[in-house]
Each structure stands twice: as C-alpha cells, then as structure tokens.
Amino acid sequence: MDLEDNVFMLPGPVKIHPRILRVMSKPSVAHRSPEFTEVIGDIRDLLKYMFDSDNDVALISGSGTAGMDMAISNLFGKDDKVLNITNGKFGERFGELSEMYSNSVALDFPWGKPPNLEDVAAELEKGDFKGVTLCHNETSTGLTNPAPEIGALAKKHDALFVMDGITSIGGLDVKLDEWGVDVALMGSQKCLGAPAGISALSVSERAMEESYDDASYYLNLKKHVTKMREKSQTPWTPAVPLLPALRESLLMLKEEGLLNRIGRIAKLGQATRAAVKALGIDLFPEREYASNTVNAMLYPEGIDDSFRDILKKKHNVIVGGAQAHIKGKVFRIGTMGVCTFTDLMACFGGIESTLKEMGHEFEEGAGTGAIVEYM
Amino acid sequence: MDLEDNVFMLPGPVKIHPRILRVMSKPSVAHRSPEFTEVIGDIRDLLKYMFDSDNDVALISGSGTAGMDMAISNLFGKDDKVLNITNGKFGERFGELSEMYSNSVALDFPWGKPPNLEDVAAELEKGDFKGVTLCHNETSTGLTNPAPEIGALAKKHDALFVMDGITSIGGLDVKLDEWGVDVALMGSQKCLGAPAGISALSVSERAMEESYDDASYYLNLKKHVTKMREKSQTPWTPAVPLLPALRESLLMLKEEGLLNRIGRIAKLGQATRAAVKALGIDLFPEREYASNTVNAMLYPEGIDDSFRDILKKKHNVIVGGAQAHIKGKVFRIGTMGVCTFTDLMACFGGIESTLKEMGHEFEEGAGTGAIVEYM
C-alpha cells in the first residue's frame, strides 16, 4: 500500500480524478501560443460558469492565499477602513491581510458560531467602510456563514463585499450577483478537485474601478483582469501544467451540471452528518450552519488525535485534523469535487474500525448504514 | 503531428524530460504530511546545490516575476534608493518593480550592449543606495552581463546586490558567494527544464536582516525562508504537483553534475553560434557577451518573422521571437536544461530548410555541419 491507495477525504486538497491527472503530463507548450491561449480562454468561460456570474475573472498562479492577497492589497490602501468578520482561521486571514495593507476593523466571533448580524450592522453604522470581508465557508470549523445577509448589510453601507468562496463556490449554493459580491475567490484544489496552485477571482465592475494600479506587481488585479478579458492570457508566465488540469476539472463540473454537483455534494454532506450522529459523535459548529463541503466533528470522550494516525496507517484513510485552539479536539471530512458515496463508505469503514479499536462504543455498522440510506 | 512532436527550442519554457512529466501525475497528497515535507526538504538541499551556496532558500509557488517581486518588495521600501542597471526586458522589469515599491534610479543601456561600468561606478558614487539590481543573463537579448564586476561595485558601496539568475543559474558559471550576491533568483522552467510555475531565491543573512516584515503577505520573504529552514515547508499551500517535478529536475542536474551541465550547455551555445555564423546570420548582442543558454540572432536581409511560422508549421520546430523594439527583427534559441546536440541538429535542419524556402542564400548543410563539429 502506498499514497496511491489512499482514501483521500481532506477538506482540501481533495481527490483528483485520473482524467485531470492525465492532462498534466504534456510536453512543453509556449504559454503565449494560440494553442495555450485557447486553454486559458476556455478556463475564463468555464470559470464564469462556475462563479455563475458574468463578472470578469482573474486567473492567478498561486494558492488561495495569493487570491486573498490580490483582493485585499489591490482594493484597500492604508487609509481605507475594512470590516473583517471572523469566526475561523480563514476569516482571520482576511483580517491579517487587511492589517497589513489597510485600516482593519476586526469583528471576531467564536469559532463554530455564526456572526451576530446585529453587531455587524452596528459596526457598519459607525460609517466610512470601504469594504467588508467574509469567509463564506469556514473550512477550519465546517461552518457556512450567512453571506446573503452580510452582503445586504455591505450594500446598505455602500461597501465593497469581498467573499472567500474557496470551499463554497462550485460546491454550495452561491449567488454572487444576487448577494452583491464584488470580489469572490476560488481555489483549484477544493470544489473542483484540481491540483493545488491556482486561484481565481470573480471581479465586479465597481471593484475594477476602485482598485489601485500600483499596489502590487505580481498580484496586480487590473493587469490580470484586462489580459484575461482582452487576450485570454495571464500577465506573467502561468503554472503551465496546472491550467489544462484546471480546464479538465471545470469541464467535469459542466458535464455534471453546477446544480447537480451542488445537489450531490449536499447529500454527501448530510450523509456524513447522519453517519457521525449514528456513531455518537457531535458536530463542532452549530448544526444549523453546518457546511456540506466540510464537516468538522468533536472527538468523543476518550478519543484523541492519534485516531487520524491509526486511520491512516491501518486503513489508508486520510481525514483532516484541526488548527489553532481546536487542534487535537476536532477532525474534519471534506466532501467536495468528485468525492462519491463509495468514497464516503470506504472512509467510514475505516472510521468505525478505528473507533472500535480505540474503545469508543457504538452499534457496529451504524455509521455506514446511515450513509447507505442516502445512497 | 501535434504539440507532442515539437522540437522545442524556446529560451524558456524549455523541453521537459519525460522523467519529470511522469512524476506530476500522482494522486493528491496532504502538503503538510511527512511524505510531502520530505519532497520539500529534498528540494531545499538540491536548490542549495544548484545555487552553489549555503545561503537560505525561499521556494515560491509563482513564476519568476513572483520571485522578483518578493526580492524587491521585501528588501526595498519607498525611502530606499535602488540602482537598476538595465539593458533588456528583464532588467527593466526590476526597474518597474523598484518604481512601484521603492526609490528607483534606473541606468539604462542599449539592448544587446553590456553596461558601462564607469557609469555604474559614477552613479553609485552619488551615495546612499540600499541596493543594486542586475539581470545576469538577459533572456530578451541573449546577453550575459558582467555580474562579478557589478557585484564588486555594489559591495564597495555597501549596497545589497539582487541578481536575476533565471536563465543563468544551473546553466552558466555562477559564483553567488564570490560575487557577493545577496538575493539570487531562479525559475523552474529555464535551466532545470521543469514545468513553469515555481521560482526560488537564494538569500544571504544580511538580506534576511534587512528585509521588511510587513511588505507583502503572500510573497513574504522571511516567512518563506523561515518555514523552509525550520520545517521544510512553505507558508501557504504550494502548487503541489510541480514540486515532485522540480525535485526530479534537480536530481537530474545533480546526477549530471553542475559543472558537467554548465560545460555541456556552453558547448551547445557555442555550437549554436557556429551554426548561425555558417549560415551568414549575425548575432544580436555583442559577440563577447553572447549567452550560452540563449542565443539571439538578427534576421538576415529579406527574412521576417514569418520564418518562425513556417518553421513551426512545416517542421514542428519552435524557436523564440523577440519583444518590444526588437520584435520581428530577432529570433532566439534556448539551449538549457536537458537540451541535446540532437535537438540542436533537428532544430537547424528545420532552420536551413525554412531559410532556403524564404530565399536566403547559404551553403546547404553548413549550419548542421558546424554543429556536428562540436558533437
């Protein structure tokens, strides 16, 4: 058994389909050639399908953090007030970025709880905010934030709404235009199941107008959007092999259909929650806000993080741990991209076996049985 | 015939060896796992071998421009004077970056000519420069700049020396420690023949000390160096599939041996110049400064840039054009990485045939004959 036999259930990177892996191994191609410009043009059109918006797109050779940096550094300068709503690690990352580049006001809520909308409204009432940031789906806590409500508040106060959709767009129901999102972000290794290394932004006209020309060289928003719109190119040499892979993953999304994909992922997320409930394991976030792309669970009494080591070593099942103050107390399961019910069954086979070995009591087959009900 | 049949002779990206292509198509792996940490640790050690220096390294998921941005934005602030020595497109890019982030003083020399060292010395005499930038090997003009002399001048004036070695390190004779280079850059798709998308810096202790903590979030120099040194990791999710590919390309360099590689590339560069000379084609840069990794040639009388289209369409041979004011007047041939004498023969077979078709007069077989002499 080696890495290639893993049942890979992280909340990103996620399983990569063999169709996607195969297209990476092509010989060199000139990145400004007509052949490669066609790849990038296809990606632009397919990203708009994924974002479900006609807004312009920026294609970045860099991780999701590069996309977040581009959004914050290009939109907000030292004199611009930005409201950072945080209740997890990735919301906090927007806060750190805003601290560095702009005038950040952070509203921190407990991890696993939704933001208090009245507090958000009250803070915005103080006036003068150029922007509001939100991580739509907090990968760190398995919580989906109330983006439509935050978007409405940002709109009311005429602030730009910047939304991290890295583990929501293409996996959860997202309505960028309806919610008034000015900049939304995706990352290649999450809901698309493509390799890590690419991020993309959906950018409103207003965001283009209000972005600074000289804030960043490599991560220049206007240059990325303009080159993409006018020439189907990127301003700098892209991470060449990752782009045919990204296109293939987007084609697979389109073949399945965005709504079908979202519906299938919803069932996988619900099945995961049904399975852990049947095993007597509690969710970390408030149930009402639990995410369908990432579920975060509290370890039951007597089980510690060595659970993940046993699961990996004995059963080749890879699930996520947690970070910061919930490290060691929480484990996470991703159900994005081309994850299937049979993957989930394999995963819970390993989980049941490991829990039993570690002395947790439950009815054998209860977890996998709950999944079968959804299949 | 399709892209996979190309004789690929660009000055980067260059031909990728099948060994390197094959390792990209692995299933997902967690980028913080012990298995992947080992990949990054190997890369760190092998990069030091390539840089031929024990200085720390930063591994960046982003193109060479990302590496240039990291160097300039982290080392030089708005109040820091930086001398940008330029005689080509990539030297000018350092100038643009320094304009954006610092107080740039540009010394522009004609493309294809070496910088006048007396002018450089005189400018530095004016005092107060925190840094000096140089593109060691100007890919745009096929010229190798006198880096040791510039390094000595920077040292004399106690300025940080930042050198773009993107098409020199691992292909030409480079002595970072001896020349006093504080930050040197490489790009994956050049002398290593790995896929595009990764760059790396070699960073002196002084550069670490004098860099700013809060200049850039995604491209933070200190975070990259520290994570690499202490944990064999990158601060953010890397472009995962590109790293096993980079490691494989570095292993191939080590197997060949750095000095052997540089010697072989020197012969390929010389053979290219012998071949074009035999065909009655002039070099663009001053012959004494001609680069062994990239040769740039002036089109002879009566030949225009449609030469490259015919070469590609009829013979599947891909060579580079030129940019800016020399566009259409110059073509370029790269001989980096795993380029071989047989590749060069195939390339010049196409070139001779195309030149003949376009009416250029020369003795048939003169170019390829000149190459055979070197083989």
What does this molecule look like?
With 375 residues, chain A is an alpha/beta fold. Chain A has two domains: 3-13 and 257-374, Alpha-Beta Complex (Aspartate Aminotransferase, domain 1), CATH 3.90.1150; 20-255, Type I PLP-dependent aspartate aminotransferase-like (Major domain) (Aspartate Aminotransferase, domain 2). Helix content of chain A is 42%, strand content 16%. Chain A contains 14 helices and 13 strands. Chain A has helices at residues 18-22, 34-51, 64-75, 89-101, 117-125, 147-156, 176-179, 205-209, 221-231, 242-256, 258-278, 306-315, 341-357, 366-374; strands spanning 7-8, 56-61, 81-86, 103-108, 129-135, 137-138, 143-144, 160-164, 183-187, 198-203, 294-298, 317-318, 330-334. Chain A has a seven-stranded mixed β-sheet with strand order 2-10-9-8-5-3-4, with helices on both faces. In chain A, strands 1-12 form a two-stranded parallel sheet. At the A-B interface, α3 and α4 of A face α1, α3 and α4 of B.
Briefly say what this structure is.
Chain A has 375 residues and is an alpha/beta fold.
Shape of chain A, please? globular
User: Overall mean pLDDT score of chain A?
Assistant: 97
Task: Give the largest chain-chain interface (CB within 8 Å).
Answer: A-B, 54 and 54 residues
User: Can you tell me the CATH architecture of the largest domain in chain A?
Assistant: 3-Layer(aba) Sandwich
Flag low-confidence runs of chain A: none
The CATH topology name of the largest domain in chain A reads Aspartate Aminotransferase, domain 2
The total number of structural domains of chain A is 2
Top CATH class of the largest domain in chain A: Alpha Beta
Structural class of chain A: alpha/beta
* Strand runs of chain A, count: 13
- Distance between the terminal alpha carbons of chain A, to the nearest Å? 28 Å
Describe the largest sheet of chain A: 7 strands, mixed
